[in-house]
Structure formats: C-alpha cells, structure tokens
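Hey, can you fold this one?
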Amino acid sequence: MPNGNVHRAVGAAAGAGSAYVVSSSQEPLCRLLEVIGGAIGGNFGARLPDLFDPATSPNHRSTGHAVVPAAAVLSWYAEQAPRWIQALRIKAEELAAKSEASENMLLALIYTALEWLARMAAGAVSGIAVGHASHLALDACTP
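Sure. Predicted structure:
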C-alpha cells in the first residue's frame, strides 16, 4: 500500500509531466516555471484524498477516495482549467510588462517575482488534478 511519501512523489512527477505537456507553447523559462508549479500542484493534489479521508479515520477510502465523486469533480475541473491557466498567463505577461517598464529596481523585482508566481500557479492548476488522480490510481492497485 503506498504511503504518503509515495503519493506525494508520484503526484509531483505526474503534475510536472502534465504541466510540461500543457505548457508546450510557452517560452523555455515560462515552461520551466509552469513545470515547477505543476510539481507543486501535483504534490498537493496527491494529498487531497487523505485530507478528506485521513488514514487514521474509520472512513478512510470513503468519499475522498471514491471514483464517481472524483470523476465528477475532475470533469468539471478539466473544463475550467484551460481558462484559469490562460488567465494566469495573461496576468503573468502584464506583470512582465510592468517589470520591464518600471524604473524602480525594487518594484521591477517585485513585478518579476509576481510574474513567476503567476506562471507557477498556471502549472499548479494542471498539476493538482493529475496529482489527485494519481493518488486514486495508486490506491486502486492496493487492497
């Protein structure tokens, strides 16, 4: 039976892979930031079923681990995710433009940091769902 460390590692790898595929049209640095965000999102998504149904609970592998509710939520999420990713990329581009236009070095640095966070958030959006699905897949292979 996979433990939390296995779920997080597989979720992070799955999230990074998902973000890598989704970010194929991005410039190399932007793509790297999205892949990092995907790994973070995948790690978080892989924890979700056990946050809903902790292993210490008698209801472990109940609602949070159920395939039908997860499929419904993931289906809705898959419809929404492209819009969220696009909105975060647009915000990142706006922040990059502000950074380039800023004459204040500290402000330019802050805009750049916010741009990078927006790009990582775009990757996390795709990573969360895949990380959650990886947890369910790993648990489906154990009694």
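The two ends are 8 Å apart (CA to CA). Let me know if you want another pass with a different chain boundary.
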